[in-house]
Amino acid sequence: MTDVPSTLTWTRAAPPEATGPGPWIEIAFGEGDGDDAPVYLRETSAPDTVVTTTRRKWRAFVLGVQAGEFDHFVEDNRP
């Protein structure tokens, strides 16, 4: 298990008009600027459960979301 620094600055991924406690996803970037620098993710409803990845993998994920590579995961779940 990776130690999560207590000094992280968490950024909430929520729409600007969002109110209330969520649950929302939060992200924090660890020390370092390289591709292997850590990126931390958590959900506001379970802040003690933290997933860790690298900046390289996070960048690939974000680019995939922007390109629509994961749209099929939500298309069948829309109200």
UniProtKB/TrEMBL annotation:
Polar residues compositional bias: what residue ranges? 1-10
Q: Which domain of life is it from?
A: Bacteria
Pfam families tied to this protein: DUF397
| DUF397 domain segment(s) | 9-65
Residue numbers spanned by region Disordered: 1-22
- UniProt protein name: DUF397 domain-containing protein
